[in-house]
Design brief:
The structure holds two protein chains of two kinds.
Chain A: H1 2-6, H2 11-89, H3 94-112, H4 133-142, H5 151-187, H6 190-221
Helix pairs in contact in A: 2-3, 2-4, 2-5, 2-6, 5-6
Chain B: H1 6-99, H2 103-126, H3 128-131, H4 146-158
Helix pairs in contact in B: 1-2, 1-4
């Protein structure tokens, strides 16, 4: 009773007010952590999406290369037989000439089919007589939907989300510090209580202001609201 | 109204309680700061992990494409050697046939030699190992610098970029 008598008259009201503010700060902290968690999840999703896109791009590129080199192998076979046919036709032996003409008439068109368009389109013909395989690969990739995927753009967005996550956690720390001072206010008395309460409120205000500022900054950086 | 004797006995446990509460709250604050640092470390670890996976995907793709390119070049080179040697063998055969007085047979064999040589010469045009000065046989050398070609392929695969040609 003597201890209770020593307490100021407004003590219960202070305790109630502090408890309510602590509850609000706790709720705000929970919401901030929830938001941070959503941002972290989005960042992880973007990274995963980027990796999937990277695998698709590489698979598409490898398929384009495989197709180009398959055509190149057929084109090399066609070209070698074309050279043989020319050599036979230009020989003095009539039988060889006939064989050369038959090669040109019946074999070369069939050999040319799997080599198309590398062996048929003049765009891929080099002055040396070789085929421009690199150009063919570029054309294949230009026509590929997979080549248009940009995994690094997903990574960049994921990195920005991760950066936002970092700064949101700073806001949560400010709220935790606010909780600390408010809890101290709960157990102190008189002027010290008022001081710690104000400090707690100041940290709460800083934390609450910090979170939307970070959200707005990163919404602008990402080119729209998150 | 106050009791000077009873006050210390009441306040001493209160002070301990207060100290314990402050320590608990301080621990919470330190834990939140630690969690923030842990979050930062997690983000860095995730980013490094993702980058390593990305580079592995790129490297795998480069290796696969280097394999396709090397397979083509080796096939063309093999055909080239085969045709070149066939041409030489046919020419030697024609010489033997001429020495035996089999001139008509020798003419036919020379046509075969010409055909094989024409294929081999076309193969040289198609092969990067003969058309590219970096690998083409120097001076009197017969064989191209295949090791230099493989080294260049490996260099492309070990420093991958999304669209770097081998």
């Amino acid at each position: 009773m003597k201890y209770a008598d020593a307490e100021p008259a407004g003590q219960p009201r202070w305790e109630l007010a502090t408890a309510i503010v602590i509850a609000i700060v706790s709720l705000t902290t929970a919401l901030a952590v929830w938001w941070t968690s959503i941002i972290a999840s989005s960042a992880a999703d973007l990274s995963r999406h980027g990796l999937i896109d990277a695998i698709k791009v590489q698979a598409g590129a490898s398929e384009d290369w495989r197709k180009a080199y398959e055509e190149a192998a057929s084109a090399a076979r066609f070209s070698a037989y074309a050279a043989e046919a020319e050599a036979l036709v230009s020989s003095a032996d009539p039988a060889a000439q006939a064989r050369g003409e038959n090669l040109k008439a019946y074999l070369l068109p069939n050999l040319q089919l799997p080599a198309a368009p590398l062996a048929t389109d003049p765009v891929y013909a080099l002055p040396s007589g070789a085929y421009d395989i690199a150009e063919r690969i570029e054309d294949l990739q230009a026509g590929s939907d997979l080549a248009a995927l940009d995994p690094e753009a997903s990574f960049a967005r994921g990195d920005r989300m991760a950066s936002q996550q970092r700064w949101l956690v700073v806001g949560s720390v400010l709220l935790a510090i606010s909780l600390f001072w408010l809890a101290v206010a709960q157990i102190t008395h008189a002027r010290r209580r008022a001081l710690t309460f104000v400090v707690g409120l100041a940290f709460f205000g800083a934390g609450v202001s910090w979170l939307p500022v970070i959200g707005a900054v990163y919404a602008l950086l990402n080119g729209g609201a998150q | 109204m106050s009791d000077p004797v009873s006050t210390p006995t009441l306040r001493s446990p209160e002070r301990w309680k207060t100290a314990a509460l402050v320590l608990r709250i301080a621990t919470t604050v330190f834990a939140s700061i630690l969690a923030a640092l842990q979050t930062d470390a997690d983000i860095r670890a995730s980013t490094a992990n993702r980058d390593s996976q990305f580079l592995a995907v790129l490297g795998t793709g480069e290796l696969q494409r280097a394999g396709l390119a090397a397979n083509y070049e080796i096939t063309v080179l093999g055909e080239l050697f085969k045709d070149s040697q066939a041409g030489t063998v046919f020419e030697l055969t024609a010489l033997e046939q001429e020495s035996r007085g089999e001139d008509r047979l020798a003419q036919g064999t020379l046509v075969l030699a010409a055909a094989a040589t024409a294929r081999a010469e076309r193969g040289q045009v198609l092969s990067i190992l003969y058309s590219d000065p970096r690998y083409a046989p120097a001076d009197e050398a017969i064989f191209p610098d295949f090791q230099a070609y493989l080294d260049d392929l490996s260099a492309g695969a070990s420093s991958p970029t999304p669209t770097s040609p081998c």
